[in-house]
Amino acid sequence: MSAPTMAERVEEYLTYRRALGYQVRTEGELLRSFARYADESGHHGPVTTELALRWARLPERAARLYQARRLEIVRTLTRYLAPREPGTEIPARGLLGPAHARRPAFLYSEAQIAALVEAARSLAPSAGLRPLTYATLIGLLACTGLRIGEALALGAGDIDFDAGVVTVRQTKFHKTRLVPLHATSVRPLRDYAQARGRLQRGPAGTAFFISENGCTLPYTTVRQTFHRLLQKAMPGAAPVGRVRPRLHDLRHTFVCRRLLEWYGDGTPIERAIDQLSAYLGHVKVTDTYWYLTGVPELLALACQRFERFADPKEMTHDPQL
Question: Entry's PROSITE patterns (predicted)?
Fold first, then answer.
């Protein structure tokens, strides 16, 4: 029996990962690219470190972090193949440097969020559904911290207006969770739901956020529109490092504001952060703890708290200890 092609190896691995609950969208695309490169270059036999490095370094001018990430993805494939296919080489970790680095978070002010919503309301057509769609979408992201993919995947029946709860279905690892809404956010969502039924030109869609024609909004379209709204609402906004404000930073802003408020009112962070982690849909609470070190304002508060903890004279005066 002939040896499997690299494409066949990759598809077997992706099937295995999906069975465990992983969506492997980006990873799958990159691994299929690796498989095409291997098969078209005439490679036969198990994966080698040399083959993995050749592919990972493409394109040559790509950022080092991107190349390291490509190599790390092939490394996960080889770890799966090695017990099944003797001769498979697992590239050493870090051959091209670190494969992961969190980008700095941009924290929106309340005024900036309000300006984005107002800019969305001015989108064309002025009497159509599009301005309401983007204004409501930005407002929902800002007040709940939902991931943009979760918001775009909401179904028309996923918001219980009477209970004030959003059902987020089949997100990371096929998890479903309930997200309570603040009372002030229910009315705009209800108004949008009524408007979408009145203003959409096409057949009724199943998604909550839809285009003028009743279709689900593609992420690429939403991202491009958001960038135009940024230019209009925040033309002078200074980026964090080299990173300009992004859609995902609305989620960062939501989390940081909540943590800052908890620090301010003396809420025990070590207990409340578990609840916040579940609310956000984080797989690990350590993903939520990142905000305590990744944002200067929160890091300063955490340092102050540690100083009080380390000083015996202050221990009895700190309500969080």
Answer: TYR_RECOMBINASE (PS51898)
Indicate whether 289 and 225 sit together in one domain: no
Q: What count of Cα atoms within 13 Å lies in the side-chain half-sphere of residue 4?
A: 14
- For residues 71 and 154, membership in a common domain is answered with no
pLDDT at 289 over 90: no
pTM, two decimal places = 0.76
- How many domains is the chain built from? 3
Q: For the residues 261-286, what does the mean pLDDT come to? A: 89
- What's the CA gap between 80 and 9, in Å, rounded? 10
Per the structure, the complete domain to which residue 279 belongs is given by 249-317
pLDDT of amino acid 283:
83
- The residues annotated with a catalytic role in the active site are 147, 172, 248, 251, 282, 291
Integer CA distances (angstroms), 90 to 14, 75, 152, in order: 18, 6, 38
